[in-house]
Amino acid sequence: MTSGYFEDTEIGDSRKAGPYLVSKDEIIQFAKQYDPRPFHIDEEAAARSVFAGLTASGAHTFAIFISLTSKLQPPLRVLAGLGWDEVRLPNAVRPGDHLDLESIVLEKRESRSNSDRGILRNQIHLRNQRRETVLQCIGNVLVARRPDAKASM
Prior knowledge:
This protein is an alpha+beta fold. The protein has helices at about 25-35, 40, 45, 60-70, 145-150; strands spanning about 15-20, 80-90, 100-110, 115-125, 135-145.
């Protein structure tokens, strides 16, 4: 099991979390508060929409992704999120979906300004039980370096 430090991470490493079950009630409750469009809160209106049924909002899908990042295994010593690039939502999240998160390290570099941390760029895929991608992006995170590693610089 990795200690979760920057030095323990290699390009190509994969971390996973899930499943996360999305319920109809959760979709409606979230949408009522943050994105009250008819296709997120009303099943009849949703049936007549381009989605042909109730769907989670993009904000809700992103919130599920963020929630699952704290459960990724093996864990990392993440100090901060630095942002997300190329965010895409290619398929809708629907009631009853079971979502799994996968994060694969694309790049790593030591911080130029702080020797106690490094930066990872990760390819992120949130997928449903049919393995359809419902969210994908490139995530950038700040990760702690092993205390003895920074002393050797």
